[in-house]
Amino acid sequence: MYADKIGNYSKALPHNNLGEVDLNSYQALIEALTTGNPDLFELIPLGGVAKLTDPQAAYAYEMAGPDSHHLSMIAPPAYSSAWNASEMAELYWQALTRDVPFLDYNTDPLTLAAASDLSKFSDFRGPKVNGAVTTGTLFRGDTPGDLVGLYISQFLCKDTPFGTTTFVQKYRTTVAGDDYMTSYEDWLNIQNGLAPSGQNQFDPTPRYIRNGRDMALWVYQDFSYQGTLTACLILLGFGQAALDPANPYLRSATQVGFPTFGGPHILDLVAGASRKALEAAWFQKWLVHRRLRPEAFGGDVQNVMTGAASYPINTELLNSQALSQVYS
Question: Which Gene Ontology molecular-function terms are recorded (predicted)?
Fold first, then answer.
């Protein structure tokens, strides 16, 4: 829709001072993706030291189950839409509240302000209660069970059996206020694929995940199925009580499952499902949507706020309380 490709993914390609992608480099990416020619991927001009993360995985096939291109994903919101504005406001509020403990969401002024502000958007699609975002629905998903109980899953808190030892889920995290890309130069360098200018400042004390900052670092450094593996190991620790009632060995007087319908089979399915899900996501990411990253959109917002550029950003975002707080 936009000749300057402001709505498209372009991280690691070269950009101008506004963060707009070099069109020749972007066209080289499109030509490689359109043809699927491996040689053309080697000719894509990059802007720094960062490489593209496995775009050719978009063409992967599976020997069992649906291939990635037989699965679908909803189209992302349009660049200038109220829906996109509300998603971005939610991300700004997540940044502002990253040091608020989950247990304080009901009382902290920042999370109360976040719920109030997001409730004002005309097309916010996160969960609500009686038409309003509350501190109990804030930053939660819309799949069954997401609003039940505390914000964080027990599977991220419970001790985890791991062979002959037990893994206590206390993780390394960064200290409060350890924020990044807060200068325009740092932001632009990251868009161009240059190395970060700073290093993480780590908390010397391992912690249970207690706030958005802890959760973000966990997600940043986890391996692809770490969460589901941890949950699976915890459940397998309950023995046969955790198995589906339809498991055929539950009705056997002489057998238990192992390579089939037992622990090794279940663990293999957990790992395999994660990789196949990544293939489906990568097909959508590279060959269908190519949606710009949120921090790239944040740069567009910054340029509009300073008058450096004019982009069709929805006014609901520009008038958001979250934006004024981040901008200040």
Answer: peroxidase activity
**Alpha carbon distance 201, 252 (integer Å):** 55
CATH number, domain containing residue 87: 1.10.606.10
Residue 62 pLDDT more than 90? no
Q: How far apart are CA 143 and CA 126, in angstroms?
A: 10
User: What are the tokens at 143?
Assistant: 């799949």
Whose structure tokens read 């663990």?
Answer: 267
CB 198 within 8 A of CB 180: yes
Asked if residue 43 is part of any domain, the answer here is no
Q: What angle do CA 323, 289, 278 make, to 5 degrees?
A: 100
In a domain, 142, yes or no: yes
pLDDT value of position 86: 98
pLDDT number for residue 327: 84
The model carries a pTM of 0.94
- Nearest CA to 173 among 91, 98, 92, 93? 98
Task: Report pLDDT digits (tens) over 220-234.
Answer: 999 999 999 999 999
Whether the per-residue pLDDT at 197 is higher than 90: the answer is no
Q: Confirm whether 114 is domain-assigned.
A: yes
**Domain tally, the chain:** 1
Nearest-angstrom CA–CA distance, 8 and 4: 9
pLDDT of res. 118: 98
* DSSP letter, residue 311: -
Answer yes or no: are the C-beta atoms of 191 and 300 closer than 8 Å.
no
* Res. 306: pLDDT tops 90: yes
**193 neighbors 13 (Cβ within 8 angstroms):** yes
Neighbours of 241 (CB within 10 A): 7
